[in-house]
Amino acid sequence: MAAQVSKNQKPILEMRGIDKSFPGVQALQGVSLELYQGEVLALLGENGAGKSTLIKVLSGVYFPDAGTITISGNDPGIRSPLDAQNAGVAVIYQEFNLVPSLCARENILLGREQARWGFFSQKTEHRETMELFSRMNVAIDPESLCRELTVAQQQVVEIAKALYARGKILVMDEPSATLTSQEVERLFAIIRELKTRGIGIIYISHRLEEVFEIADRVMVMRDGRHIATKPACGLTREELIEMMVGRKIENEFPKLAAPLGGKRLEVKGLSGAGTAEDISFFVRKGEVLGIAGLVGAGRTEMARLIFGADPKDSGEIFLDGRRVEIRSPVDAIRNGLCLLTEDRKAQGLVLGLSSRENFALPNLSHWSRLRFINHKKEQDSFSGYIKSLKIKLSHADQTVRDLSGGNQQKIVLAKWLEANSEVIIFDEPTRGIDVGAKYEIYQLINQLAAKGKAILMISSELPELLGMCDRILVMHEGSLSGEIADVPHATQEQILSLAVGRTA
Fold first, then answer.
1. What CATH number does the domain located at 263-499 have?
2. Is the distance from CB of 355 to CB of 393 less than 8 angstroms?
3. How would you label 260-293 residue by residue, b for 16+ Cβ within 10 Å and e otherwise?
4. Are 141 and 153 in contact (CB under 8 A)?
5. Is 238 helix (H, G, I), strand (E, B) or coil?
6. Any idea where the domains of the chain sit in the sequence?
7. Which run of H or of E encompasses 16?
8. 13-88+167-245 classified as CATH 3.10.20.30
9. What is the pTM of this model?
10. Helices (DSSP H) in 165-286: which residue ranges?
């Protein structure tokens, strides 16, 4: 049930006329936000819209150039993260702020331990932690080390930290990005419980289906400005997308059929990594082959085996009918394979280097002679991709960590296109990317397929697979459990049935 905001109800949080600029960039311009007790406000917008900057202002990371913040009618004087915490603001980022070597109890009470005569009472702390978990209806051992907990359990620990600190405003940044569907439902149950206690929640997500399920109101930002705030129940998906991107997107999945050629990649009897067993399939020139399956089904592990990132126990790989031996990523690159990893920040990019340097890393031989690099040719090549892929950056040497998720993904794609890859493996290509950037990625996939590239798309987003793939293979516990050839007439239920091991 959506929380009903009374006309006489006063907001628990008000941000008025917030401005924030950085050298050469106006990140926020006159942004206002209201949050009420016991409601979920979805904060939406494309990458670079200003959402993160606004939250960093609220949490004391940035000090605004102009504007005011009031909590429960008072100015808390937020000038540091500690000020924000003392005012009852808690932010749960996508990358959790936990100490892996400490247990759940120690993480929850870190910095707030209760001592008597210089001694801590672990028994009291254990009891208080158990009470917190009980209120959230979750079963976690307070003495479990955080590094041994699942991602969903670590998230619960983060929420428990906020509750223990008596947080009354909870910001959740992409909380479901790495969760299974069952874990997302568990998270939603916790959020509904928090609402009953009057906690106001700001929920940031690129998954629009979640917004309609959990949000009471929706606030949309674009280009550092507040576009609109509306009740979630009165919006359609199409209206929400139009507000976010500033234009109508007639078809969210703009699939274009490409001419299919012969087998470009063929895998026979591939096993290894302890999670992939006897996998055989092929993908043709111009084909987009989807790989579906639940978290832990072995999809990423299979991709790493093909790319040579992990050693295989057995199996053969053929490219254009020719058997190739791939023992390392270097072998894969030389043979025209590339892998856009699931975690582009940790595995696909060197965040401390510039965008141009990341693009150049696997391609230096293209512009080298006698060990000297022709930087003009390098720059010209990168400039061509900036234009063709519509990469948004202030200059070629902008540090890649400062780019939005969609533009980071385009940098990864550009370096592999320059490497002349004929087989492109996308592992969760649109994770953490806004709907506008997703649309551009889909169009790029169409263009690659039209050029005869063979594409493997691993995705947890079933609508994405159904909307963009020619065929879909489904994995279950390290093996292929089925194939869906008639994708236009397939359903999510069919994929899920194969994903849990049921045969047709």
1. 3.40.50.300
2. yes
3. eeeebbbbeebbbbebbbebebbbbbbbbbbbbb
4. no
5. helix
6. 13-88+167-245, 263-499
7. strand 13-22
8. no
9. 0.69
10. 181-196, 208-214, 237-245
Q: Are 14 and 229 in contact (CB under 8 A)?
A: no
Residues with Cβ within 8 Å of residue 232, at least 6 apart in sequence: 2, 42, 211, 212, 215, 216, 217, 218
SS (H, E, C) 335-403: CCEEEECCCHHHHHCCCCCEHHHHHHHHHHHHHEECCEECHHHHHHHHHHHHHHCCCCCCCCCCEHHHC
Residue 175 and residue 38: Cα distance in Å, rounded? 18
**Does 13-88+167-245 match 263-499 in CATH topology?**
yes
Reported as a single tens digit per residue, the pLDDT across 256-280 is: 989 999 999 999 999 997 788 999 9
How is the beta sheet containing 322-324 ordered, strand by strand? 276-284, 263-272, 312-319, 322-324
Q: Report the relative pairing of strands 372-373 and 263-272 from DSSP bridges.
A: unpaired
CA–CA distance, 37 with 3 (Å, rounded to integer): 9
Numbers of helices and strands, H then E, in the chain: 16, 23
pLDDT tens profile 326-382: 999 999 988 999 998 877 777 788 888 999 999 988 888 888 887 788 888 888 889
